[in-house]
Amino acid sequence: MTGDERAEASVRREPGTAQGRLARDYSALARTVRQSGLLRRRYGYYWTRLILAVLALGGVWCAVVVVGRSWWQVAVAAAMAVVLTQLAFLGHDCAHRQVFRSRAWNDWVARVLANVLVGISYGWWTDKHDAHHTDPNREGKDPDIGPGAIAFTPSAVRARRGAVSRWFARRQGWFFFPLLTLEGLNLHVSSVRTVLGRRPVRHRGFEAPALMARLVAPVVVLFVLLPPGIAAAFLGVQLVVFGLMLGSSFAPNHKGMPVVPPTLEVDFLRRQVLMSRNIRGGVAVDFLMGGLNRQIEHHLFPSMPRPNLRRVQPVVRDHCAELGVPYTEVGFFRSYAIVVAYLNDVEHSAREPFACPVAGALGRT
Fold first, then answer.
1. Residue 119: pLDDT above 90?
2. For 181-196, how does the pLDDT look when each residue is reduced to its tens digit (9 = 90+)?
3. Which of 37, 80, 86, 250 gives 60 a disulfide partner, CB atoms 3.0 to 4.6 angstroms apart?
4. What is the spatial distance between Cα 5 and Cα 15, in angstroms, rounded to a whole number?
């Protein structure tokens, strides 16, 4: 069920309640957007992107052969990371049903892109990402702010034990981006653990061999073609740049925005807008972030083709202004400064629970 369908189902369930009235705020926006035609597929855009990205990956492998036993391979490795990030963005768009009308086409293209080309389990990633979209920044629900090396919520900071752990929590913002250099490795490891573990995975028979072949074959090829030191450097640079690029495209969109208590119910529009942050910028930012810089619009209309997010942005911004719903948009570098400052002082930055605007509208205290 899409976001607008969920919101409109809420209206039908509780038409006279405060929740129902708030849900209608989204239904009105969804009707306007549907009538505008911005939800229609953009086949030319996506086929062009898919073909160019696959050709670029092939071109990078050709460059590996041509450059040969040279330390210039580290530049080729960085280029490969850029291409893999773009393929991951395309897989993300397919997973959200942005590319094709057919659910099966979207699922299988995303599954091939993720497992065969990028090296990430589609089944593992979609479960995690769907949970994030359903409850962004909701404690106990959004896996992106769950327990881990970084504490994203005050309760996670308070749970830290030991002087070293508490010291790190007070300075974790400075470590956040260096830790992203390990994100590529983390994605691969988490994917392997999922497809080889006991957790249910749809189409495990495809994902497990495809993923393992993708992760093993390039390593073998590199160590056959290149000296061990250069091959190892190639893999290290590719993983570091890939992790930085992919992690940096997600980090500024929600970190430092309000954290929702587990028991507070928020209507769909406010749940997506108030917990998301847009990043201003032109073509370069669109490329680096894969369209995720328009995070508010993406969360409101996850099946909308990426190039249409720019066109729907003024409609969403005006609708939020009419409702008095804060719409957050900042510059590219400012967004990362906010993330670092927030993480260095999570316990105080997130001290006030996300309750005031919505709780009042729902008649709660």
1. yes
2. 999 999 999 999 999 9
3. 80
4. 15
Of the candidates 33, 137, 132, the one whose C-alpha atom is nearest the C-alpha of residue 92 is 132
pLDDT value of position 21: 66
The answer for residues whose C-beta is within 8 angstroms of residue 345's C-beta and 6 or more apart is 170
Nearest CA to 249 out of 217, 279, 292 is that of 292
Amino acid at 304: M
Dig out the tokens for 241 from the structure: 């740049």
Asked if 19 contacts 7 with a C-beta cutoff of 8 angstroms, the reply is: no
* pLDDT > 90 in the chain, percent: 73
Token couple for 361: 């509208």
Closest CA to 195 of 142, 120, 281, 100: 120
> What mean pLDDT is reported for the chain?
89
CA 141 – CA 279 distance, rounded (Å): 25
Question: pTM to 2 decimals?
Answer: 0.90
Structure tokens at 359: 């709780």
Tokens of 37: 């035609």
Are the C-beta atoms of residues 87 and 117 closer than 8 Å to each other? yes
Q: Which run of H or E residues covers position 346?
A: helix 346-349
Beta bridge partners of 138: 260
C-alpha dihedral over 120, 121, 124, 127, to 10 degrees?
Answer: 90
Range with the lowest mean pLDDT among 20-24, 41-45, 231-235, 343-347?
A: 20-24
